[in-house]
Design brief:
The complex is a heterodimer of chains A (317) and B (291). Chain A has 317 residues and is an all-alpha fold. Helix content of chain A is 76%, strand content 0%. The longest helix of chain B has 37 residues. Classes of the chains: A mainly alpha (317), B mainly alpha (291).
Chain lengths: 317, 291
């Protein structure tokens, strides 16, 4: 197992290098370059000022040179300086990261709990009204545009009922832990929707398979109660593939956070990403994209490791 | 329906089997009609729509649904039903084109990698891994912010970022088919590699390709609406379901119908497309029961 993990970690290096090359290429392809943001204003700007600006940012040099400089700094943990705030990109990211991780964590927990309940119960009572309702709801959940779902929740629970706050992380002047958690409910619900739907469908089919196995028949024959059979014997085996899919999807939560944070004015990385996009803050965009890609790569490894731990039949070379 | 399906039919081609299996999937059939119906209505928008999509009528702004305006009007007095029909043309076309580009490119990459194997396979699949590891929506947002978004550039951008899953699936299929005897026979008869891939391998991998393409249509429609929501989609006055939602979000509380109907349109089409994909998956599986 240790050998396998070390091997996989070594494989990550060329993968991450490839990712930085593509990301750098994408950012380089930006039309107009960073000075475009300056030129958008109506004032006349002396070309010499523009030239000095480009020189200061280092964008006047050939692309391979820029990449070499960027990557040699990046491996030392320096992702450059933000165009819009002139602060180090890593500093800005770490400042916003806790809010995003909190949102991702809350959504993950919520999605896991709901998906397990839905998946197990609809498998245990296949073709019951609960199963049909769950299946339909899951299809709707997957087909629903996330931001539209968010707008409707804001309308219903924020405007009409007035139960929940619709933006930010706390009420100004009345912040408390309870208040903060209230602010978390809607964004976490929105971000988890897709995963509740996807995971519960997956767990349902995995459970149906497990419920048809011989060991479940044996457990029933021993006279164990249906609850023990379903939640103990069947679920423990059915959840193996589902848990590794859940680890894989962790990175999807990061993508989803871009939209969710923007709608709910949640001060995390996703919202900062959209702001950086409008400000043409390329080093910051690059840094956030790199963080997201790293998450994908790490979570993929995590998914494989979890699979190996849960399923004793898997042996890693 | 069971008597017709069980009637003795000595010879049924693959196509016949496909239709028979699909017909049994009742939700998929309904979905086919829903998607087809909505697409036709949208295509025929210039003939059907009661108004012009950019006809401003300041005398009747922000009207809730009524007999004159079935789905109400927006803040410029434009008829919402008309705009949904016109918007659907763009949204559905973007979905179709993006899925076509993504599936075409993905199939090509997967087929070439799987067929040639070795170093070609290694290089192509590592490239696929790299692109797959970059979170799609953020990358799409950056790319979309580069171009003056029109429908075509929108479809191309989404398509360019949605080929990776297809490439992997098609490669796995091709690896299976490559060693089949009929491929060996074709090679023995002197068929070129391009002919073997195009004539003998890809047609036998059509199941996963078609299913993937169907799901990609729904996915692309959602992505288009997400980008429009951030202001990066097709620019007004051309309506799309995404930019109609973007316009409506500020008036969600006072004129909820402006957000609810375009959202319902997206939901309905994507839902139907996904059901259809589900049905196709069963119908195109050659190993499924043939009854």
């Amino acid at each position: 197992m240790t050998g396998y993990v070390v091997h996989r970690l070594l494989q990550m290096i060329p993968l991450l290098l490839g990712i930085t090359v593509i990301l750098f290429g994408v950012i380089q392809a930006a039309p107009g370059g960073p000075e475009a943001a300056l030129l958008e204003s109506d004032r006349f700007i002396d070309p010499a000022v523009i030239e000095a600006y480009r020189e200061r940012l280092g964008v006047d040099q050939p692309v391979p040179v820029q990449y070499a400089k960027w990557i040699s700094a990046a491996v030392r943990g320096d992702l450059g300086v933000s165009f819009s705030t002139t602060r180090p990109v890593t500093e800005m990211i770490f400042e916003r990261l806790p809010a995003t991780l909190e949102l991702m964590g809350a959504s993950f927990l919520l999605a896991a709990v709901l998906a397990f309940l839905l998946g197990v119960v609809s498998a245990a009572r296949q073709y019951s009204w609960f199963d049909h309702l769950g299946t339909s709801a899951s299809f709707v959940g997957i087909a629903m545009p996330v931001f539209w779902f968010a707008l409707i929740l804001q309308l219903v629970f924020g405007v009409w009922l007035g139960w929940l706050p619709v933006a930010g992380t706390q009420t100004v002047g009345a912040s408390s832990l309870g208040d903060h958690l209230l602010h978390l409910i809607l964004p976490a619900t929105v971000l988890s929707l897709r995963y509740v739907a996807g995971w519960s469908r997956y767990l349902r089919s995995s459970m149906l398979e497990a419920l048809r196995t011989d060991f479940v028949r044996t457990a029933r024959a021993k006279g164990l109660s249906e609850r023990v059979v379903v939640w103990g014997h069947a679920l423990r085996n059915a959840m193996i593939p589902v848990v590794s899919v859940m680890a894989l999807n962790l990175s999807g939560l990061f993508s989803g956070a871009v939209i969710t944070e923007t709608i709910f004015a949640w001060p995390g990385i996703g919202r900062m990403f959209v702001q950086a996009m409008f400000a043409r803050d390329y080093p910051l965009l690059m840094g956030i994209l790199l963080l997201g890609s790293t998450m994908v790569v790490v979570f993929n490894l995590l998914a494989d490791i979890v699979y190996g731990i849960l399923d004793p039949r898997i042996r890693y070379e | 329906m069971s008597s017709a399906a069980e009637a003795p039919l000595p010879v049924v081609g693959q196509r016949g089997l496909f239709w028979r299996r699909l017909r049994r999937h009742r939700l998929a059939v309904i979905s086919l009609f829903v998607v087809g119906g909505i697409s036709l209505l949208c295509l025929a928008a210039p003939l059907l729509a009661p108004f012009d999509f950019d006809a401003i009528d300041l005398g009747s702004i922000r009207r809730p649904p009524s007999l004159g305006h079935w789905l109400g009007t927006d803040d410029l007095g434009r008829d919402l039903l008309t705009r949904i029909l016109y918007g659907g043309r763009i949204s559905i076309l973007i979905g179709l084109f993006a899925a076509l580009i993504g599936t075409g490119f993905g199939s090509l990459v997967g087929a070439v990698a799987g067929y040639y194997g070795g170093r070609v396979d290694g290089a192509l699949m590592r490239f696929t891994d790299v692109v797959y590891s970059i979170p799609t929506l953020p990358l799409l947002i950056v790319l979309a912010s580069y171009s003056q978004a029109g429908a075509t550039s929108m479809a191309v951008t989404i398509g360019v970022l949605s080929w990776m899953a297809t490439a992997r699936v098609v490669r796995a299929e091709v690896l299976k088919i490559r060693s089949m005897e009929y491929v060996e026979a074709a090679r023995g008869l002197g068929a070129t590699n391009a002919r073997i891939i195009g004539r003998h391998i890809l047609p036998n991998a059509v199941g996963p390709i078609v299913v993937g393409a169907t799901l990609a249509v729904g996915n692309a429609i959602i992505l288009e609406s997400s980008l429009s929501f951030l202001g990066l989609g097709v620019q007004p006055p051309t309506p799309t379901w995404g930019n109609m939602l973007m316009d409506a979000q500020s008036t969600m509380a006072s004129q909820p119908w402006l957000s609810i109907f375009p959202g319902m349109a997206i939901l309905l089409v994507v839902l139907a497309v996904n059901f259809l994909g589900d049905g196709l998956q069963d119908a195109l599986d050659p190993r499924a029961e043939t009854r």
